[in-house]
């Protein structure tokens, strides 16, 4: 079953954020756009390149009203230790959500059960708490923050303009399509 347009299931977790431990629940997501960015584990190889890429682009996400949550099955204590010991991870300003019970990873269907780790899953959640974008990558394939920004802009555009759709490779400011009988077979 697809998670698209489903509501985020209830959860409660602790995150490391700006030098503190904070509580995060599904209610924390309401009223703004959010990204849940699952990754396998702290202190690994591809993960810091992805999290660093998000950190480098974090201000662009904030300009769009988007909060990012980096999520792994590590504890919030491990997130703090990684943050304190890695130059790349130290630049992260978004919450690093801990999922040691594996509940959140199960809810988003990214848990690798036999390993206790999360797949590389990216989920864009709208202000009503509904999942609008799902992307799952194999563990050895890193993601791109700029492509994620493009997708979020498209999701925000169609949310604000429900009678339009964004074609392939759409960039902000480019033409969209208004689905109609006249377009059938003409694109």
Protein model, in words:
With 187 residues, the chain is α+β, with helices and mostly antiparallel strands. It contains 6 helices and 9 strands; from the N terminus they run βββααβααβαββββα. The chain has helices at residues 46-56, 58-63, 76-85, 87-90, 103-107, 145-160, and strands at 12-17, 20-25, 33-38, 66-72, 96-98, 111-112, 117-118, 120-125, 131-137. Strand 1 (12-17) and strand 2 form a beta hairpin. The longest helix has 16 residues, at 145-160. The chain is globular and about 55 Å long. The model has no long low-confidence stretch (mean pLDDT 96).
Q: What keywords describe this structure?
A:
antioxidant; oxidoreductase; 187 residues; EC 1.11.1.26; alpha+beta; Alkyl hydroperoxide reductase C; two-stranded antiparallel ribbon; 6 helices; 28% helix; 7-stranded mixed β-sheet
Gist of the model:
This protein has 187 residues and is of the alpha+beta class.
Write down the overall geometry: globular
Strand order of the largest sheet: 2-1-5-4-3-8-9
- Count every helix, treating DSSP H or I runs of 4 or more residues as helices: 6
Summarize the main sheet.
7 strands, mixed
Q: Overall pLDDT, averaged? A: 96
**Strand count:** 9
Work out the strand percent.
15-25%
Give the radius of gyration. 17 Å
Spatial gap, N to C terminus: 30 Å
- Poorly predicted segments: none
* SS-derived structural category: alpha+beta
Range of helix content: 25-40%
The sequence of SSEs as H and E is: EEEHHEHHEHEEEEH
């Amino acid at each position: 079953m697809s998670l698209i347009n489903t509501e985020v299931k209830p959860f409660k977790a602790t995150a490391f954020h700006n030098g503190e431990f904070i509580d995060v629940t599904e209610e924390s997501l309401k009223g703004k756009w959010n990204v849940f960015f699952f990754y396998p584990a702290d202190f690994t190889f591809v993960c810091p390149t992805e999290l660093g890429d998000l950190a480098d682009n974090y201000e662009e996400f904030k300009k769009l009203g988007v909060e990012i949550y980096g999520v792994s099955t590590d504890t919030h204590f491990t997130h703090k230790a990684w943050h304190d010991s890695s130059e790349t991870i130290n630049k992260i300003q978004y919450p690093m959500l801990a999922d040691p019970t594996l509940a959140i990873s199960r809810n988003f269907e990214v848990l690798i059960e036999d390993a206790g780790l999360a797949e590389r899953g990216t989920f864009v959640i709208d202000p009503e708490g509904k999942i609008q974008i799902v992307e799952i990558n194999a563990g050895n394939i890193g993601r791109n923050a700029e492509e994620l920004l493009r997708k979020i802009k498209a999701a925000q555009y169609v949310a604000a303009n429900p009678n339009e759709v964004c074609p392939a490779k759409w960039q902000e400011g480019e033409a969209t399509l208004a689905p109609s009988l006249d377009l059938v077979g003409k694109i």
